[in-house]
Amino acid sequence: MTATTDFDHVAIATTDIAATLDLVVGRLGAVVVHGGDGYGFRWVQARLGTATAGMTVELLVVWEPAVNDFLARFVDRHGVGVHHMTFKVPDLRVALDRCADFGLHPVGVSLDNPEWREAFLQPREAHGTVVQLAQTEYAPDDFARMVTDAERTGAAAGTPVWWPQGQVRANERITLDRVVVGSPDRSEARRFFVGLLDGAVTADAAAGTDIRWPGGGCLRLVDAETAGVLRLEATGPAGATFDLSGATLAISAP
Asked: Is the pTM of this model over 0.90?
């Protein structure tokens, strides 16, 4: 695995995609970029920020659970909220070998589709949250162009476009800065996100350890009794806290 590993997005399960899009687009100024159908779920990605600043949120809804019920089971057990974080890797086979070196046991390994290869690390091995490792033929610049085009035209790409449209985008946007992850063992969490996933530590203090990836994805490790995503942090025109389909979104003024 090389330093081109990237923190691509954080995925949130929702049971009300219309209300969630009304919030992220209509109140938070997000740009809906693209979406489509998966196996047992549908997804749509929204950019909280610009093509060069901020982060991407992926919204997931249960769809055709008879095909694959992983998301349906998650919602039944845990309700809505953060489901996983996705890290793009340059070579999934190499990443899987690296996981073995770290004593980890990926599940759901799929190597057959050259456009999208994936594997998952379960929360007990990924510090409280599902981590998806994915290899794709699309470069980060491709997604940046999609964000720019969607912002300019107001039209998102979709295979198909299944989500409700027509939200009036807020004039002022927020910028998603980081995902805050709690851990009872911050040194081990740091080993995972830096040693395995090639993040770079940009700040390290008692209040937290900031880890960043080349595409701008960032997470902050903080001490906590249990492991997992605690909240999303953003900057915007006014400080506020929102319930983003079960995920806490804390916005501070710049």
From this structure: yes
